[in-house]
Structure formats: C-alpha cells, structure tokens
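4.2 Preliminary Data

To establish feasibility before requesting continued support, the project team ran the inverse folding procedure on a target of 111 residues. The structure was first converted into the token representation described in Section 3, and no sequence information of any kind was made available to the design step. The complete token record follows.
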C-alpha cells in the first residue's frame, strides 16, 4: 500500500499528526517514507527498488514530496530521494536495500 502526502493543514491537531517531521519521529519501522519530488528520476528508481522489499516484509510505503513542506524542502532539497524506516534515515540519493531490510526487521531480524 502506498500513501501520498499525509500533511495536514497547519493549525489543527497534534504536532505529530500535522507535520511530516512529527510523523517520522513516531513512525513504526514498518512505515517506510520516501522523500521525493516531481521529475526526480532517482526517486522513481528508488521507489521501484524498494516496493518489492516492502511487499516481502509487510511494510507500508509513504511518498512525500519535499516541495510540499518548507522544512523538508530546506533540509532535503539537494538529497532526494531520502528513505526512512520509521524515524531512522536509511539512505539518501540511492536505495540501499540491505540497510532498509535491517532497519525494517530491527534487532535480530525480528518483525
């Protein structure tokens, strides 16, 4: 399952529900976030590479456009794609599938 742009309008609700950085801070390791942007070829390649791994491990992919959030834009604009497993940054620029697997599986390969 792929979810896109979970950002909610500013001013309502809890910080962790309103901001992408807040959601990353409390995300489960099986919630994988791919920071991307329109027209990013490396982002498309990263998505194509990670989707089979996520399906195998029962993880969910969230796509977030860095240009949709000023904080994300400032922090990651030169680094997309960026992949997180829960709150843990796994890789930038290229999908590191082994690091992604380890991050999703957690200690001793448990799920």
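Position-by-position output of the design step:
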């Amino acid at each position: 399952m792929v979810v896109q742009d979970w950002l909610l309008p500013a001013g309502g609700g809890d910080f962790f529900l309103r901001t992408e950085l807040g959601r990353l801070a409390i995300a489960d390791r099986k919630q994988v976030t791919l920071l991307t942007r329109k027209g990013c070829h490396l982002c498309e390649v990263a998505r194509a590479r990670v989707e089979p791994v996520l399906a195998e491990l029962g993880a969910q992919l969230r796509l977030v456009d860095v240009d949709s959030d000023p904080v994300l834009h400032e922090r990651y604009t030169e680094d997309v794609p960026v992949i997180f497993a829960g709150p843990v940054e796994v890789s930038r620029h290229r999908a590191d599938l082994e690091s992604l697997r380890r991050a999703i599986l957690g200690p001793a390969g448990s799920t």
